């Protein structure tokens, strides 16, 4: 099955943010926006929800800290208890530096793994459809034309008012 896309190109970051707000207010379905660098406010203009990646990072960090602390206590106090100079077998302050390092390692690797899993990035994946100069010096906004009520001229005029330099329609296969 294929879908029809409306693609608008902009020269300035503020133009794409304003055009995205206007497209959302007009009831258009925004597929994606492509920019050469991160644009402040574009995510809110697109209506994207906040990422859950910080929670994933926290969970993996706590998992790593808990696992390492448990392993160190189990190893020194239960599996191989060695009394050295009357020191306690499970000395938690001695375990803090290694536990911290493992917390950072688990949080970092878990976050990167979750990001790759959610975004479906993997070796050998075919690149997404490219748009002319989208990540070079142009800002691109892609809308989905779902039904026959999509008015091409009205949408083009809306974007021209917001500094659009080029528009095009494209027919693409859905993923």
Descriptive account of the structure:
The chain is elongated and about 85 Å long. The termini are close together. 16% of the residues are buried. 46% of the residues lie in helices and 18% in strands. A four-stranded antiparallel sheet has the order 2-3-1-4. With 175 residues, it is an alpha+beta fold. It folds into two domains: 91 residues, BMC (bacterial microcompartment) domain (Alpha-Beta Plaits, 2-Layer Sandwich); 66 residues, no CATH class.
Mean pLDDT: 90
Q: Give the oligomeric state of the chains in this entry, treating copies of one chain as homo and distinct chains as hetero.
A: single chain
CATH superfamily membership of the largest domain, which one? BMC (bacterial microcompartment) domain
Strand content: 15-25%
Count all strands and give the number: 4
Low-confidence stretches: none
Would you summarize the structure shown here?
With 175 residues, the protein is α+β, with helices and mostly antiparallel strands. 46% of the residues lie in helices and 18% in strands. It has a 4-stranded antiparallel sheet with strand order 2-3-1-4.
């Amino acid at each position: 099955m294929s879908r029809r896309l409306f693609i608008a190109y902009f020269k300035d970051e503020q133009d794409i943010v304003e055009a995205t707000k206007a497209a959302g207010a007009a009831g258009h379905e925004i597929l994606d926006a492509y920019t050469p660098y991160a644009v402040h406010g574009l995510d809110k203009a697109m209506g994207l929800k906040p990422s859950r990646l910080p929670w994933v990072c926290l969970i993996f960090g706590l998992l790593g800290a808990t696992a390492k602390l448990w392993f160190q206590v189990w190893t020194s106090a239960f599996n191989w208890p060695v009394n050295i100079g009357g020191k306690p077998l499970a000395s938690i302050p001695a375990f803090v530096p290694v536990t911290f390092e493992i917390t950072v390692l688990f949080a970092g690797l878990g976050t990167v793994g979750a990001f790759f899993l959610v975004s479906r990035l993997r070796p050998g994946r075919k690149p997404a459809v490219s748009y002319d100069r989208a990540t070079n010096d142009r800002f691109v906004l892609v809308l989905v034309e779902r039904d026959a009520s999509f008015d091409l001229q009205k949408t083009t005029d809306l974007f021209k008012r917001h500094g659009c330099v080029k528009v095009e329609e494209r027919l693409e296969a859905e993923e």
